[in-house]
Amino acid sequence: MRILVTGATGTVGRHVVDQLLTAGATVRALTRNPAAARLPGKVELVRGDLGSPTPEVFDGVERMYMLSIGDPARVTELAERAGVRRIVTLTSTVATHAHQETEQAVEKSGLEWTHVRPGMFSANLLDWAAGIKADGVVREPHGDARQAPVHEQDIAAVAATALLFDGHNGQTYSLSGPESLTKPEQAAAIGEAIGVDVRFEELSPDEWRARSGVPDLVADFMLDLWQRATVRPEPVLACVEDVLGRPARTVTEWAAGHVGAFR
Ligand SMILES: NC(=O)c1ccc[n+]([C@@H]2O[C@H](COP(=O)([O-])OP(=O)(O)OC[C@H]3O[C@@H](n4cnc5c(N)ncnc54)[C@H](OP(=O)(O)O)[C@@H]3O)[C@@H](O)[C@H]2O)c1
After folding, report:
1. Is the same domain home to 70 and 16?
2. Whole-structure pTM over 0.90, yes or no?
3. Which of 37, 88, 206, 215 is in the most buried spot, having the most CB atoms within 10 Å?
4. 12 touches ligand 1 (CB under 6 Å)
């Protein structure tokens, strides 16, 4: 079975590729720049842009992992025409316009579909790596925001399961990690994995905006998300365990796989 993986060079997509290869699938990976892709040799690399997709990309493909990029109606139409029978989308628990468009395009098609909607990726905690390396301190606003980071390999495992196996058609899987943690708790969970006492220092939103250099649009989005998570903690959701039959991985387990980034 040939499966097209879009976003194959991304945080989740790389793990989707690995897990599909391990299961014996034929993987075609779409990238704008094959020379920089650094994907396993077995992968069929295809150059393409989801902003201007071409029909050849979908030739011989039966199933597809689809990111919310470009024109999802056009991507879905070309895929269906080429004989793709199943699409698994990667969207988000935070429904942006792009994610909604993608989910709607797939639902309107005649194809089997599954939506994988993660919350905050554990991989976002790599943003803390420089501070932790420098002096063991994480500096951010809204320390009492509770989030439930989900391991990118767990997200990929749910997507790979829905791509490979039946029984997931028409399902929307909202994913979280196994614990809803404040930022000091997340920092301590990383500290536990790397054997360093990691502290959290509260910044005001304006201090963080000035120090982080994050573009205004992204900073606004993050500050709003964190502020809301102080009032309404992100819930722990059961989908990873329901689909995979094992618990979701903790922040400490995630950090244990990234010790080199933090120490
Ligand atoms: N970070 C979070 O906490 C979080 C939480 C929930 C949902 N999400 C969602 O996750 C998605 C991102 O997934 P990710 O983190 O695995 O990816 P990522 O690491 O952000 O990488 C982006 C991927 O998209 C590909 N790409 C970008 N523009 C493209 C285009 N025009 N045509 C074709 N491919 C293109 C890139 O491929 P090439 O560069 O190789 O072309 C790359 O593989 C986003 O939709 C985001 O909203 C993120």
Report:
1. yes
2. yes
3. 88
4. yes
